[in-house]
Design a protein that fits this description.
35% of the residues lie in helices and 16% in strands. It has 14 helices and 16 strands. Strand 13, helix 7 and strand 14 form a beta-alpha-beta unit.
């Protein structure tokens, strides 16, 4: 397809969820940058978020933000939502809103993915549903009933603090093999207390209780997004939390009833069919099974999926960008999703949305591995502003 033939107008229509109005359908998803000052987002990180709102993105998701439970985060440089970080988060939100966008804070707990060497000790042990990273790899301890209640309360505090600093909503990170996803995945949840096992209705029980507690605490106008995935960082190819549309429907219904407004279906490629005999991807199936809003993600605006990029193998060119956007429009117009997350491409070019709106596909700056590793301050130099054009 030729670039001149693309009609992107449908992607630039406003979208409303609860009382939140987004100016278009484009979202910057949560992506770890690994830059914080004692858990606080830095001024450079605030500028990074603001710059993408200036570039046309309607909604900015913060990077994974650890809740204030001692077991929540051990990764070097991770940000936190806690009493001492609130004002720094307020600056992030105000910058995004001032540039015409909206912001969600993504609340996160590593669970068994947490590395003991990063500060866990007996006073703050690594906790997860069953003490498992995978079925064959233990790490840390299984949650007690008291642990579960305390962590749920930490999620609620994180949501309330996010609301206090002006965020329009929160996203619960329940994907990629981390804490809430460890409940959803049968391989890492072998609990026998009604919260685990082979039945997805039991495995989704605790994540749904977290959603319900947040909804009750934050009220009716605060938006809750729920990011989930089949793939895990520990099992990139074969992991499944649900094995059929019927199981997916059970999970979605429980979470929707608890208060989820947006389901963020995280995939490696947004257009890959989820199950045989259907062209629907995970987002498309989600949209078919729920009345909630659906956010798609996965190689939007690119040719190669994420691991290839991280290896420095990204062959995206202008025809590939045009082809990806054409497929995006085709599926959006078939109502397979409501919102579109643009990950690596938004790192490569913060003006990606504005350039798509103007049909300037040849001017889009490509993502490369150096972009991911560059110190955030470099994004504000005159040299890099010139590169972004």
């Amino acid at each position: 397809m030729l670039a001149a033939d693309l009609d992107t107008s449908s992607l630039f229509t406003p979208f409303t969820v609860r009382n939140l109005v987004l100016r278009n359908r484009f979202v910057v998803p949560s992506m770890q940058r690994g830059v914080s000052d004692g858990g606080m987002p830095t001024a450079d990180l605030a500028a990074y978020y603001r710059r993408r709102a200036e570039g046309g993105f309607a909604l900015i998701m913060s990077e994974s933000c650890a809740i204030d439970h001692p077991s929540a985060g051990g990764k070097q440089g991770c940000v936190r939502m806690a009493s001492h970080t609130k004002e720094a988060w307020r600056q992030c939100v105000e910058g995004v809103v001032g540039a015409g966008g909206q912001m969600f804070i993504q609340l996160w707990h590593e669970g068994a993915m947490r590395q003991e060497m990063n500060g866990a000790d007996e006073a703050a042990p690594t906790l997860s549903p069953s003490g498992l990273v995978t079925g064959a790899k233990p790490n840390g301890k299984a949650l007690t009933a008291r642990d579960m209640e305390e962590i749920k309360e930490s999620y609620v505090r994180g949501a309330l603090m996010s609301q206090e600093v002006g965020a329009a909503g929160v996203e619960l990170h329940a994907a990629h093999g981390f804490f809430l996803d460890q409940f959803l995945w049968a391989e890492t949840n072998i609990r026998a207390d009604g919260y685990g096992g082979e039945n997805i209705a039991q495995r989704v029980r605790f994540p749904a209780e977290v959603v319900s507690a947040i909804r009750q605490a934050t009220g009716e106008n605060f938006v809750i997004s729920f990011r989930f995935s089949q793939w895990k960082e520990t099992d990139y190819h074969t992991a499944k939390i649900v094995n059929s549309p019927a199981e997916l429907g059970v999970m979605l219904a429980r979470l929707r009833a608890a208060g989820v407004d947006i389901f963020h279906a995280s995939t490696r490629r947004f257009h890959t069919p989820e199950w045989p005999n259907s062209q629907l991807g995970l987002a498309g199936w989600t949209k078919a099974l729920t009345d909630a809003a659906v956010l798609t993600v996965g190689s939007v605006g690119g040719k190669d999926e994420v691991l290839e990029s991280f290896k420095g193998i990204d062959t995206t060119d202008t025809p590939a960008i045009v082809s990806s956007i054409a497929e995006l429009i085709r599926r959006f117009d078939r109502q397979e999703f409501d919102l579109v997350a643009v990950g690596r491409a938004s790192i490569g070019d913060p003006d990606w949305v504005n350039k798509v709106a103007a049909g300037r596909y040849q001017d889009i700056r490509r993502f490369n591995l150096k972009d991911l590793l560059t110190v955030l301050a470099a994004y504000d130099t005159e040299f890099n502003k010139g590169l972004y054009g």
